[in-house]
Each structure stands twice: as structure tokens, then as C-alpha cells.
Amino acid sequence: MLDRTLEIKTPEQVELMRRAGLLVGETLELLRGAARAGVTTGELDALAEDNIRSHGGVPSFLGYGYPPFPASICASVNAEVVHGIPGARALVDGDVISIDCGAIVEGWHGDAAITVAIGEVPAEVTELMAVTEDALWAGIGAARLKGRVSDISRAVETTVRERGSYGILEDYVGHGIGSQMHMDPNVPNVVRRGERGPRLVTGMALAVEPMVTLGGAETDVLADDWTVVTSDGSLAAHFEHTFALTPDGVWVLTALDGGQERLAGLGVPFGGR
Ligand code: MG
Ligand code: MG
Fold first, then answer.
1. I need a labelling partner for 214 at 20 to 30 A (CA). Which of 17, 69, 169, 202 fits?
2. Distance 92 CA to ligand 1 centre (A)
3. Is 54 exposed, middle or buried (0-12, 13-18, 19+ CB in 10 A)?
4. Ligand 1: distance of its center to the CA of 238 in Å?
5. How far is the CA of 232 from the centre of ligand 1 (A)?
6. Which has the closest alpha carbon to 206: 172, 238, 240, 237?
7. Mean pLDDT of the chain
8. Is residue 2 over pLDDT 60?
9. pLDDT for residue 233 is more than 80
10. Does residue 237 form part of some domain?
11. Ligand nearest to the Cα of 113, by number
């Protein structure tokens, strides 16, 4: 049975979400190029806000929640996993920074995140990033019409577990997205016993976002009420995309190529254009 609380998008609305998604994807590529030793997270935030606004978008993170999030990106460095607040911190060689970005175009949201290494990082950190990004794509690739949200969770979790002893955050999850940034359903990164989640149908849009650590899955929130850090101080990675299910397959709205290349590698039908 169709869950009536879920927002199902028309093809026209998915097109608008693609515009928001592309703006987010392009902004993240801009930041990937700008993130280097000596650059502050506040400078990256200013670049992002500028790029979003100059292309007709509105930064969705700015003023979000309580206390109102004070920036247009989340910049989470090293043991910070997600929701880090940009500021005067200058990146140094050996850092890893997770950058999360959201934008609204004509009322429709896009949400995506990347983790970037600054200079040389140990091989295990490069592998952590690869595992997390592969888990994201495996999750997206597991989304099939008539399947379940738990198919995504299972693919994310299995991909991470098969690659080694990593921590997968369970207190923070992916989500439905559309006319708001965070909507039903939750998209957990691990399978929860007895929870299959709603059925996947055409017009559904989801953000998948594995958060993976080199240590445990336990986290704390800093006194700023936002920054989520690993309790054991281990490094973390976070990758996210927003995708929609269309009659033809999967359309990764925040990927510059719509996900075409990675989906082809997974043997998953591309549902974009
Ligand atoms: Mg995000
Ligand atoms: Mg998200």
C-alpha cells in the first residue's frame, strides 16, 4: 500500500529538483577545488553562499533548526562527522573535511555531501573515503521500484562491513527530500530488525548519506549544539546524494552526470535525461 504521508513528485517537480541538485553538485565541485591547506572553513562557506545565490538558489542550511544554523555549508574536519560550523579554522595538510551543502531552487531542495583530503593522508583514510562513497552508490543502486527503503540500508551497511571494521553512525540517517529538506521516510545506514520502511515508488526522492568512521559508531554533540564528533576521536567520512525514482530508473539529482557513470558500473538503469 502506498504510504500517504510520503511526498510523491510529478515529473515537472523532479525537473525542478534537478536544478536544485545540480546547483548543489556544482557548488560542491567548486569547494572541492578550493579546499586546500591555509583556506579556512569560513572561506569555503562564503564561496558556497555566493555560488548558490548568484545562480538563483537559496542556501537551505542557513538559519535551519535551533539554534539556527549560522552558515550555508556544514564543514566537518577530521573527528567531526557532520554538522560542523564553518569559521576561522584553517585547513592543514593531512586533514579530511566533509562538506555538506543544500540549496533551494523555486521551492525544491537538493542536499549532498563530499569528503575531501587535504594534501597527503594515510592510506587507511583514503580507503575510508572510498568505502563511504562506494556505500553511498551501492545504496542508491539498490533502490528499485517496488523495493523497500531497507534495501538501500542493507546495501550501504553490507558494503561498509565487507570492507573492514568501520563504525557506521546510526543516530543520523538519510531522509526523504523535496519541498522540504528533511521529510519522511528515514533512510538508515544500517538494517533495523523488523523495519523494512516504505515501498519505493515513482516520484519518490531520497537523500542517502552514509557516515562512517575509522573507529566506533558513538558520537557526541559539541557545546555549539551542532557539531557531531566521534566519541573515540576517530576520523570520519560522509558522502551524500539526492536521487529520484523515475519510471526509467534512478536519477541522481546532485551528481553532475545524474549518476549515469556510477549507475552503469552497478548495472542499474539510469532514470534521468
Ligand atoms: Mg546533507
Ligand atoms: Mg541530508
1. 69
2. 24
3. exposed
4. 9
5. 23
6. 240
7. 97
8. no
9. yes
10. yes
11. 1
Structural domain includes residue 218: yes
- Strand order across the beta sheet in which 219-221 lies: 80-82, 228-230, 219-221
How many domains are there within the chain? 1
- 193 CA distance to ligand 1 middle (Å): 26
Amino acid at site 260? Q
Taking the centre of ligand 1 as the mean of its atom positions, its distance from the CA of residue 161, in whole angstroms, is 23
Q: Pull the grid cell for residue 269.
A: 538503469
pLDDT (0 to 100) of residue 249: 96
What's the confidence (pLDDT) of residue 271? 97
Structural domain harbouring 38: 11-266
Ligand 1 centre to CA of 272 (Å) is 21
Predicted local distance difference test score (pLDDT) of residue 69: 98
- The alpha carbon of 186 and the centre of ligand 2 are apart by a number of angstroms equal to 10
- What is the pLDDT averaged over residues 211-230? 98
- CATH code of the domain containing 228: 3.90.230.10
**Ligand 2 centroid distance, CA of 139 (Å):** 14
pLDDT tens-digit profile of 204-217? 999 999 999 999 99
Query: Looking at the predicted structure, is the pLDDT value of residue 265 above 70?
Result: yes
Q: Which residues surround ligand 1, an ion (CB under 5 A)?
A: 100, 111, 113, 240
Ligand found nearest the CA of 207: 2
State which amino acid sits at residue 193: R
CB 131 within 8 A of CB 145: no
Secondary-structure breakdown of the chain: helix, strand, coil percentages, each rounded to the nearest 5: 30, 25, 45
What is the 36 CA–ligand 1 centroid distance (Å)? 21
